[in-house]
User: Fold this.
Amino acid sequence: MTTPPSGRCFEDFEPGQVIEHPLGRTVTQNDNIWFTLLTNNTNPIHFDAHYAAHTEFGRPLVNSAFTIALVTGLSVSDMSQNAVNLGWDEVRLPHPLFEGDTVYARSEVLSLRESRSRPHQGVLTFKTSGYNQHGTVVLEFKRTVLVYRQGYVPSVTSRPSMKETP
Assistant:
């Protein structure tokens, strides 16, 4: 099933469904350093190549918070374009991610149920795996979202038009 441009709704998911997310993203040294400094992470393994060279990894590790943000982002158009996050569970980093690696993602629908308190939405739980260019899994997590049912997705009915410059 191809993802509609406006994203999937509750009715578009079924348990066991596996979705290969179409985009990959190569992580650069700038991505890693900027994210690490932006978040005030002082662990030198992310931004000090000399220090990292003396670790078991021999080079800088990509900040794990960046990794979860990136893999989540790769899944949004297919899984949560029409949803809000309720939580991440069982986050695992089985293999390091390095600068220069390209990350891909896939998700599997684990469960879905109607919301008890919001009849226009449902609760969707899925497992997402992020893997590198070699197919090695670098991140796994379960994510639960509150997703809109068909016909209830908020829409902007009047998009502003661009003003022409004289």
